[in-house]
Amino acid sequence: MRELTVPTSADMRRLGARLAELVRAGDLLVLTGDLGAGKTTLVQGLASGLGTPGPVLSPTFVIARVHRGGRLPLVHVDAYRLGSSIEVDDLDLDASVDESVTVVEWGEGLVENLAGDRMELRISRSIDEADEARRVSVTTTGGRWDGVVID
Hints:
Elements (H helix, E strand, L loop, with lengths): L1 E5 L2 H14 L5 E6 L5 H12 L13 E4 L6 E5 L6 H6 L10 E5 L12 E8 L8 E8 L10
Parallel strand pairs: 2-5, 2-6, 4-5
Antiparallel strand pairs: 1-7, 3-4, 6-7
Helix pairs in contact: 1-2
């Protein structure tokens, strides 16, 4: 596991842009964190780094959005309203996971079966509400991420 300190929302976007340099088709990123922790901000940076045109908004009410036009298609999912892996299966994410980068907010415990290799990012806010810094814990599963350095 790797621990990163991300001082500002601009830095969170930069972390997402850095991830864009590292991801490839078939990658699954699972984001966990409280409301307002910075999950969507990270995805916005990732999308920007991929060259995805247009705004990237939280898919809270539509559950999943597919962004095309960048280096890779980006599937952005918000699983907050999903109660089980059966509901995730209904989204048919596995149909596009091989050719896209799939990012699932609130996906812990629901989407791990989509890919044997995945990166999980847990974003935590500071106890001091005046402190904008976030702690990002990065855990990887499978050999895909062996030797990949995230900074």
